[in-house]
TrEMBL record:
It comes from Ancylobacter radicis. The keyword Hydrolase applies. Catalyzes an amino-pyrimidine hydrolysis reaction at the C5' of the pyrimidine moiety of thiamine compounds, a reaction that is part of a thiamine salvage pathway. Thus, catalyzes the conversion of 4-amino-5-aminomethyl-2-methylpyrimidine to 4-amino-5-hydroxymethyl-2-methylpyrimidine (HMP). This is Aminopyrimidine aminohydrolase. InterPro entries: Haem_Oase-like_multi-hlx, TenA_E, Thiaminase-2/PQQC, Thiaminase_II, Thiamine_Salvage_TenA. It catalyses: thiamine + H2O = 5-(2-hydroxyethyl)-4-methylthiazole + 4-amino-5-hydroxymethyl-2-methylpyrimidine + H(+); 4-amino-5-aminomethyl-2-methylpyrimidine + H2O = 4-amino-5-hydroxymethyl-2-methylpyrimidine + NH4(+).
Length: 226
C-alpha cells in the first residue's frame, strides 16, 4: 500500500474512505479473481458492464476537459477520454473474444442497475458540478483500480485465467496516469472554496461506494428485478 499521508485533498479523501477501499480489496469478487477461481459467468458480467461504464466514463472525462481551468488540464482529460474509449474498444477486440462475448450479446445486454446508477452519477456530476468536484467524482475509478490491480498482482495465483486484466491495471503506465490525475485534483482542491472542497469529499465518497457496488453487482450477476 502506498503512503497517502499528508495535507492534500487526496490524502484526506483516501484516509476518510480507506475502510471502503479495504472492503473492495477483500470482497469475494476480488478474492476469487486473485486466486483464479472467479467463475466465467461472473467475469463476463463484469466485462460487459465495464464496457458500458467506460463509454460513460469517457464522456465524463471529456466534460472535465471542457471545464479545465488551464490548457494542461484540457489536454490531460481529453487524452484520458480518448484512452477510456480505446480501452473499451480493446475489450471488444481482446477480452470479449477471449471470453466468448459476441458483439450481439453486448448490444443486447442492458446496463445493470448499479452500472446505470454509477454512470448517471458521473455524467450528472460532470455536467452540474464545478471542475474540482468533477475531478473528485472521477478520481476513485482511476485510483481504486490502480491500487486493487497492484494488490491482486501481489497475491494472484499464476497462471490465472484473468492474467491479462491483472497486468493491465497493475502496470506502471496506468499508475503513472493515476498519479497525474491525483496531482491535478489536488491542485484544483488547493484553490477551491470550503463549500466546493466539502462537495469534493461528498462525491469522492459516493464514487468509492459505487466502486464497491459495481464489483458486488458482478459477483451477484445482478440484473433488473422487473
Amino acid at each position: 500500500m502506498s503512503d497517502f499521508s499528508g495535507s492534500t485533498f487526496s490524502a484526506h479523501a483516501w484516509g476518510r474512505n480507506e475502510p471502503v477501499y479495504e472492503a473492495i480489496r477483500t470482497m469475494p469478487f476480488n478474492n476469487a479473481l486473485a486466486d483464479g477461481t472467479l467463475s466465467l459467468e461472473r467475469f463476463r458480467h463484469y466485462m460487459i458492464q465495464d464496457a458500458h461504464y467506460l463509454i460513460a466514463f469517457g464522456r465524463g472525462l471529456a466534460i472535465a476537459a471542457a471545464k479545465a481551468d488551464d490548457p494542461d488540464g484540457l489536454v490531460q482529460f481529453a487524452e484520458a477520454a480518448k484512452v477510456a474509449v480505446v480501452v473499451e474498444r480493446s475489450l471488444h477486440a481482446d477480452f470479449f473474444a477471449s471470453f466468448g462475448i459476441s458483439a450481439d450479446e453486448f448490444a443486447r445486454t442492458q446496463m445493470s442497475p448499479v452500472c446505470h446508477h454509477y454512470t448517471s452519477f458521473l455524467i450528472g456530476s460532470a455536467h452540474a458540478e464545478p471542475y474540482p468536484v468533477v475531478l473528485a467524482a472521477l478520481l476513485p475509478c482511476f485510483w481504486i483500480y490502480a491500487e486493487i490491480g497492484r494488490d491482486i498482482l501481489g497475491r494472484a495465483v499464476r497462471p490465472n485465467p484473468y492474467d491479462a486484466w491483472i497486468d493491465t491495471y497493475a502496470g506502471e503506465e496506468f499508475h503513472e496516469a493515476v498519479r497525474a490525475v491525483i496531482a491535478t485534483t489536488d491542485r484544483a482542491a488547493a484553490k477551491a472554496s470550503p463549500d466546493v472542497l466539502q462537495r469534493m469529499h461528498e462525491v469522492y465518497q459516493r464514487a468509492c461506494q459505487l466502486e464497491w457496488m459495481f464489483w458486488d453487482s458482478a459477483w451477484r450477476e445482478a440484473d433488473w428485478p422487473v
